[in-house]
Design goal:
The chain is mainly α and 372 residues long. 69% of the residues lie in helices and 2% in strands. The chain is built from 16 helices and two strands. The protein has helices spanning 11-33, 44-50, 62-74, 78-105, 107-118, 121-126, 133-149, 156-168, 173-185, 192-217, 222-240, 252-257, 261-284, 291-303, 308-317, 344-371; strands at 3-4, 7-10. Strands 1-2 form a two-stranded antiparallel sheet. Helix 3 packs across helix 4 (78-105) and helix 4 packs parallel to helix 7. The two termini are 39 Å apart.
Length: 372
Amino acid sequence: MRKTDNLWMPEAIFWALAGGAYLTYLSYTWPIYGQAPMTDPVAYPELARAMRYFYDSGGREPRYIFFIKLLTRTVKPNDFALRLGSVLSTAAAAALLTAWARWQHGFLVAALAALALALNGTLAYYAPQGYNMPAYGAMLTLFAALWLGCRDSRYDAIAWGISGAACALTRLEGALVVAVILTYTAINAKLRKKALTALAVVATLTLPYLIAQKATSGEFFASHRGHANFWATRADEAAIGSGPTAQSDKSWSDAFFGHNPIAFAGRWLKGYALAILWYAPRLWQACSPLLIFALIALQASWRKHDYDLTVFLAAITLPVAFILPQDQVGPGSGVELRFVLPLSYPLALLCGLGLSQTLRSLRTQSTRLIVK
């Protein structure tokens, strides 16, 4: 049996302990947060029942609705099935993160990344509430692991494309995230063909959903037009200083970008600053000092001229950056943390990398002192 890196622990025992610990953690959060009222996910079972084929998912992306359709056939009642689906997605994301870290960076980084993720209280809060964000985080983690770890096989482009399409079909903004990452990858001449092939695979698997949206509602981005108008209404309320107003009914582009591109760009850049300085620390709450180690890992990668994880973080933030400066509920509230929840997984990996580098540096220094 293969041993873990530098530790006398069988690999199977490590995975059993890690999986058992995380499932115990999730089971602990269920009684605390499992009674919180659900909002958007309440509609998922009805959409799942009406689903005639994979892309026929109503106003929501099909991959998670299809998952709920399978789950509600075997798990009752629907409320429990929704919460279980969200918890299973959170557990899957954690397993994928740990496997990714173990595969590419070794046992120590995997263990420390898993610890950093377990200390993320926001994941514990949202896990039993039925949202599709944990599933989206799992698909992004799978895509990142394949994108960073599979670059020497002729099947890499297919793996990138299928996992990228899974991101887009879980939350449509994932298509933008994947497109940015693969476009960045195409800058590398050695990977250009693979990146472009992967983009073609993503488009081939995602376009049928947009066509289905057009056929049923008359618009390719019908669901996101509603989301865009929600945030446009919140922005209008903030601008005039009023309370709740009737939701606007703007076109998709007007609702997203408005008539002032400079103002939109400013709000977008402010959103990036808030993601780093305000939202990311709130994900970890009292344990937010851990993020110092993520910064250490990023700086180490920059010194090596390796910008892959930086681009991944920036791409994940891109679709939500423009809403982050807004106040969803009241002055100073910001938006719900579920919109930045996918940042938890790459940040946890970076925390593991930074902690590992710090521990190795301390061990090297102590060895030198002993030698002297």
